[in-house]
Design goal:
The complex is a heterodimer of chains A (about 375) and B (about 600). Chain A is mostly helical. Chain A has 14 helices and four strands. Chain A has a four-stranded mixed beta sheet. Helix content of chain B is about 35%, strand content about 25%. In chain B, the strands form five sheets. Chain B has a six-stranded mixed beta sheet with strand order 6-7-8-3-9-10, with helices on both faces. Chain B is globular. Classes of the chains: A mainly alpha (about 375), B alpha/beta (about 600).
Amino acid sequence: MTQIKQYFQFIFNLCQKEFLTVLKDPSSRIILILPIIMQSILFGYAATFDLKEVPYAVLDQSNSQASHDVLQKLKGAGLFNQVATLHGSNEVADVIGNQEALMVVYFPADFADKLQQDQASPLQLIVDGRNSATANAVVGSFNAITLAYNASTDVGSQLPITVKSRAWFNPNMETRWIIMPGMIAALSMIQTMMLTALSVAREREQGTFDQLLVTPSLPSQILISKAVPSIFIGLIQSTLVFLICRFWFDIPFQGNLFVLYLGLFLFTLASVGIGLSISAVSLNMQQAMLYTFVLLMPLMLLSGYATPLANMPDVMQNMTYVNPLRFSISIVRRVYLEGATLADVYTEMLPLILIAVVTLPVASWLFRHRTS
Amino acid sequence: MTSAVVQAEALNKVFINKQKKEQVVALASLDMCVKKGELTALVGPDGAGKTTLLRLIAGLMTPTQGRLSVLDIDMYAHPQQVQNLISYMPQRFGLYEDLSVQENLDLYADLHGVPADERHSRYQRLLTMTNLADFTARPAGKLSGGMKQKLGLACTLVRSPQLLLLDEPTVGVDPLSRQELWKIILQLVEEESLTVIVSTAYLDEAARCQQVHLLHEGKILVSGSPDTLTQRAQNQCYLFTPNPEQKPRELQSALLDKSDLVVDAVPQGGRVRCVLHPNNTIEDVTKDIPYNKVEPVVPSLEDAFMMSLKEHMPLQSVSVEKLKKDHKAKPDASSPIVSVKQLVKTFGDFTAVAKTSFDVYPGEIFGLLGPNGAGKTTTFRMLCGLLPATSGVLSVAGKNLRTARADARGRIGYVSQKFALYGNLTVYENLRFFAGTYNLWGKQRKAAIERVSEQFDLASHLKDKSGELPGGYKQRLAMAASLMHQPDILFLDEPTSGADPLARRAFWRRITALSQTGTAIIITTHFMEEAEYCDKILIQDAGEKLAMGTPEEIRADLADTGGEVMSMEETFINIIAVNRRKKQERSDED
């Protein structure tokens, strides 16, 4: 009993030291809080594929009632903003080329005639394809408008078949709803990993780690005391992002807080494991910093945070299975937007536990056995 | 043009400590004059203002008040102009560790705009002087401490300056490299009639200069040639020979306890050198202490230095009694507490430690000596369990700490070479933390913190940030932290490196008192005279054991010196040199 008490007394003492070294300076406290708030707000507004005020130009050689009606619909949709009226097809390349307009709507001279004769009457849409995601969105929105036009005018004998789609979990298809919950996991990972990666490396560089190793402290105690403050800080950062999602951006939370935090805790544990392993192999802070940066980029890319996992080649899809961020982003999104329960997401928690169970003992072994 | 290279009048420099909102006076109305072609030494305790003075002369800071001109140029008006004419080597010279010796030289030549046609001959000369010609392709980070310092000096000298400023160039450098560095400096003064100002903690170095300035609290206490300064201690210096069964350091302690009569007492060649207060006679001192013989000796600069300082500041009080009284009982002294047999450590095909054996008994002070790269620190790290041994038997308090249970480490204390406590924590927070790591809680912890802060005079600094303490305090804090749990064995890796003579004396008083409580102490040092305090010393070079025994025994091995007692430093240099020569001959025969 006394031995167990002593074990935890050691950990408590070590943790106290860790918290002091990290949080003592006001400047380092600010660095742990302020960037998180700034970044989540920045991402919430800036990282979006949603259309707003799409600049377009019109080349209307038909100049008919029909073409005017379509343009009217376009204006009424509220997503588009006409910036120019063109007079010849030679001007099209210019407005697209110098990014004056994202699309040009071109009505050929025979547009109205063909429509009258019940023929297929193509109007042409020229879109700036340099950003494919935006281009797709523009085309999609425009299609919706022409469909609406078709329906309203009831042209021809057959009604064109219209497809009405509804997006679940994100009815207005706002990118923000996908981006922001992902940030709850992704943003805190960057700093937790950096913090842990630097912690042992800093002590090695300053010689305090040797001083620690010659005391009766056990590697497991050192490990736990290094992990606890990082997990704590990581969870606080996640909470900050969560609060910004919920109350600043008003994204409704559908799930259970306990499940969300269980997922976040396991995720932070796994990232701390990776961070500590980096730290244990690094000789100095510079190395630790470099390794972390090299690792962060693929972790982000292969997480499904910005791009769907299903679109990746098989090899890369397999690689995502060792990425804690992949699972955590999925857990957070599902719990946040779908209201997924523990039964729904526990299969994604198991890999996180596995990553932590492998990396943490490796780090602890490396504390003493790193060959210098 | 006058012959004064540096002219300072009523020079003041005040720093403002923003956190505490108080002023720190680094230099207080200092007057100094340095003549052309002269070699000038700045000596004084830590924090006396030596570095500040050098940095002001180098134009890296502006004085708060007073007049300062260097090479007849006003330092307020044209600091850049002066910087173009002088060279300054700071305490930690900025070598690029990943660049080779040659690349470092090229870089500094580029920075100083040395013309390409002058470089070749300059490099040649510098590389020959520093003996670095064979190592031009080696990365600077892979050089030994002494070689790094020499390369630093070479980089400082890539151009011919009119004034050379050196800030403690020999700190952390072994006696052999120190000798070589000084050879270079003296050669430069002679051949290029260079003016040099050097700050140093070694008074034998100051004795080689033409002018010595003793600084204390930002003022010059005394200055003059080494000879005139030494005169001050005339007729005040004596050499005591202890009784046969008496240890020199016991006699030394007895002398130091008479602090109203005795300025200084240090062990020397198995005897004790003692300096008296000016108004006392030797009879006053010898009345009631046991000794064998006493004779007057010629004073040294160090004796005079101690006398002058003693007039202005009390010798740091060391609560020796406190140290002894509070110490817990120790294991019996009949069996060794540290035992090393045939210890070997290799890194790849490089042998850092080769077949070393020794025993250390409780209450013994065991000194590990050797030039930079001799394998001292490697031996240390193996003993402390920080590094696995390649082969051999290691036993510290009956265990191999590499494999023993964690609580076995509770019997040792370890003070590493550089300050290795948490710099952004306060003194108190560091002590509290380390007490915890040694399993001291609650009342025990409080008592331990009180005890060590009293023993090491830290009580008034408990709330200060550890990283911002002056050097001497840092060292004491590190000692205090390693003694919280009253270990049976204390490991000290170059604890006195860069410390001034006063701080070193206080340090050794504590160490000898500690050994009297039964603590075994294993220590490495670059100050050879400190080997005199040790009960046993081991001299290593390139991983090999060269000599082991008491200081007297080692000196006796080299008895072919014609009766004159050799200083420990001479002995050391002799042993290393003889060994290296033998090695050279052997490899020549192959």
